[in-house]
Amino acid sequence: MARIKMVEESDAEGPLAVLYAASKSRSIAGGVPDILRTMSLRPDFLAAIDAASRMHFTDGALSRAQHEMIASYVSALNRCRY
Question: How confident is the model at residue 80 (pLDDT cuts 50, 70, 90)?
Fold first, then answer.
């Protein structure tokens, strides 16, 4: 059971609804990732983290797939479900 309060997509309003819609449109799974929803009580912070994440996961020295692989490995090491 999650201990972090999150705003559900159906309950999002204003700037949060806009952020959720943008995130959902970019999502392969068609939803807002839980890791982003954990910041839903602070839409300003969510917007900054989302922008940083998109920049981080773009192709550069490493491909997006390599970034994802590293993030997944680190999450597993930290026993984090995200």
Answer: confident
- Cβ atoms of 20 and 9 closer than 8 Å: yes
pLDDT in tens, 30-55: 888 888 899 999 999 999 998 988 88
Sequence-distant (6+) residues with CB within 8 A of 47 are 15, 19
Average pLDDT over residues 68-82: 87
Domain ranges of the chain: 12-77
Instruction: Return all residues near 34 (Cβ < 8 A) that are at least 6 apart.
Output: 6, 82
Calpha distance 24→16 (Å, rounded): 12
Distance of CA 69 to the CA centre of its chain: 16
